[in-house]
Amino acid sequence: MPNLSSPQLSALSFAILFACSSTAALPKLQSKAGDVEPASAMAGRLGHFGDQRNGTYLNPILPADFQNTDVLRVGSHYYYISATKAMSPGMAVLTSDDLMDWKIIGHVIPDITQFSPRFNYDHMDGAQRGVWAGTLAYHAGLFYVYFTTPDEGIFVSTAANPAGPWSPLTCLMKAAGWDDPAPLWDDDGKAYLITTNFAVDPKNGKPYNIHLFRMSSDGLSIELETDKIIYQSRCSEANKLYKFNGLYYHFFSEVTKEGRVPMIGRAKTIAGPYEIHQLNHVNARTDREPNQGSILQTHTGKWVFITHHGLNEWEGRPASILPVTWIDGWPVAGEIGQDGIGNMVWSGKEPIPVMPRSSIHPALFQTTDDFNAALLSPKWEWFFQPKPDAWSLTERPGYLRLHALRPLDQENHLLKSPDILTQRPFRVNNNVAVVKIDIGHMVDGQKSGLCFLGRTYASMDVIRKDGKSSFSFDNNGQAIHGPGLPADKKQSGSKQNGVQQVRHNFHSALTANALYLLERLSILRASVASLEREWDFIQRMI
User: Fold this and answer.
1) Which residues does 405 contact at the CB level (< 8 Å), separation at least 6?
2) Considering the domain boundaries, does residue 5 fall inside one?
3) Which terminal Cβ of the chain has fewer Cβ within 10 Å, N or C?
4) Model confidence over 309-364: pLDDT tens digits?
5) Tens digits of per-residue pLDDT, 107-121?
6) Side-chain half-sphere CA neighbours of 159 within 13 A
7) CB neighbourhood size of 389 (10 A)
8) Residues 141 and 181 both lie in one domain
9) Distance of alpha carbon 179 from alpha carbon 209, whole angstroms
10) 70-74 and 56-58: which strand pairing?
11) CATH at residue 187
12) Residue at a domain's end among 362, 380, 404
């Protein structure tokens, strides 16, 4: 049936489908939940983000939760990774040829229980933990992804193709409290890793120290005895390490009176000392703090800073691109201020002009799925590691079948439903989610619906009780029960009896419920007919 998605409570935005059983007794823990027909999660209107198809662009270039950004150029191709926390598969990988139109091509980590059983469907603990920020590198014909999980350690995986398959994880350091690792292979072949540790270090009595380690030449092990602290400041993290024109540049962020700001250090040797400059100003109210990303030169010779916006709103942490100007050997991102520090820009000329272009962003087409493929599309991510036999693309070809599972808590909280499938929605006007669902297999004690999910959430559900189906609206845990559903009947355009269509206008939903904190869009396993009618019901009831 529908896909279920539960939010990654801090950076979010997803379309979801799920099948869950309430405490009302089910004859067994697992029940056939139904099938999902082609699901179109989102469609947006061109003109509010990214490439404008006329040689210019508007920020953000990715108005969705592609947080903790790192971008790498190999030849004329660009690759982007994004942290996924407790979503599985973990660490999304995207590609583009022009830095504007991006496509999700895979994930680095197929099973996030490699770190800990807490991330499995039968535990669902640590939604804000899991896969944190990483760095993507290319060396000796291999792609490398270095990342941390804050409670387990520092990891690396390699691949010949960024779409995968990726190698089994290598643990470089098994220890809690590490974040934002980044490698550098120097001209002499020596390999280094820079990373932040949150704990107070006995060497200086301060937290948030940035450490430099030597690595083996293949980048698959750390020489712990080479540890050196090269910088410390308030909440210093978001590390990247570069070498430009014979000088070493250390990108990071730290907290000042402005907020979390991007910084750049420059040194003649990799171990420092580093001279520090501020890369650009931030303002939480006007630009949502663009403060973590990558500095790179395009194959056309332009320099850019690709960054996420550090402050969440309902769609998560989107990504923007700022032009970079070099002044006296220092990069300045965005519009250069009188103090020589950059400022956020919301539009500009494309760094890689491509004409002519399609009038529609390819990324928006990625949200549609007819479930005819043998494998689940990389556009989807589960909330925690799913139960392998609780979903299928083959039990009924052309459908996603979800089997209902009981929530892990007695309150039947959505965040404890162990079969949640998510997809990022884009923050654009007139955003619409459509899912077609066959509810013929719902049984008493099950519910499903359409949901915005995050720190706060709202869902429109169908509940099956006493052999009858009825609507319910849940506003952050406060349920309002609505009218019953008419008997299932064949609808125009449906594949078969029991297939109904759910259509949701995101903007109207958010306005009606003031759910600006929502971080994930969820489509829950549900039987919901025409959404325009059902949403009117919700607006009357709230």
Assistant:
1) 19, 20, 21, 29, 30, 121, 387, 390, 417, 418, 419
2) no
3) C
4) 999 887 889 999 999 999 999 999 999 999 999 999 999 999 998 877 776 666 66
5) 999 999 999 999 999
6) 18
7) 8
8) yes
9) 10
10) unpaired
11) 2.115.10.20
12) 362
